Amino acid sequence: MMMTVIIDVNGLIMSVIYEWYSADLPQAGHPETRVMKVTKQQAQANRARIVETASTLFRERGYDGVGVADLMAAAGFTHGGFYKHFGSKTDLMAEAAACGLARSADAAMSGDPADFMSYYISREHRDNPGSGCTMAALCADAARQPESVKAAFAAGIEHQLSAPARQEQAPGDNESDEARARRIVLMAQAVGAVVLSRSCPDDSPLADEILEVCRAHVLARLPTERPA
Q1: Among the ranges given (13-22, 76-85, 126-135, 172-181), the one the predictor scored with the smallest mean pLDDT
Q2: For a FRET experiment, which of 17, 102, 123, 219 has its CA 20 to 30 Å from that of 83?
């Protein structure tokens, strides 16, 4: 009986130690091999993979629609490895939001504004939130989240609003209030159009009407020239 107790206790301890050191790695191969391969660079890559996966799943399902265990499994890691990278799900939500908003800003500035808006306010974007804009997918959810998530959204929105001004102006110049107000209105209309359309049934004529009307309105009010 004593021997049985010792074996059980040792087995539990080994399980805990194994989880602590190996949960940061994809579930493949021999456990001892995985432990030896953990490096600082690999840990950073694993963290980035978790953030990317979470960013996609949050856009698809909302913040309350996916748990830590599900997103870690989707990223290819064990549940226990989550807390080696993040203090809480809220911490991951804030970082994933910052990542997604930065991607949106880069996409908005990397091509022709008319082409970008034509895609943004479209059925294709509407129907694929997982690969789409974080603002359109999660702004409503963010309003109900802790301040750290709201702060990530505020910083990301401000970055996207100010990016064109940084490109268009000479160093030291100040942006006019009118130009900034115009960008705020266009952003709000584009995001709102997608949000409103998604709130309608997929086959609703209203869903397409909202997109068509708002797309035409936004395109008609875009600047006619793009800075070099």
Answers
A1: 13-22
A2: 102
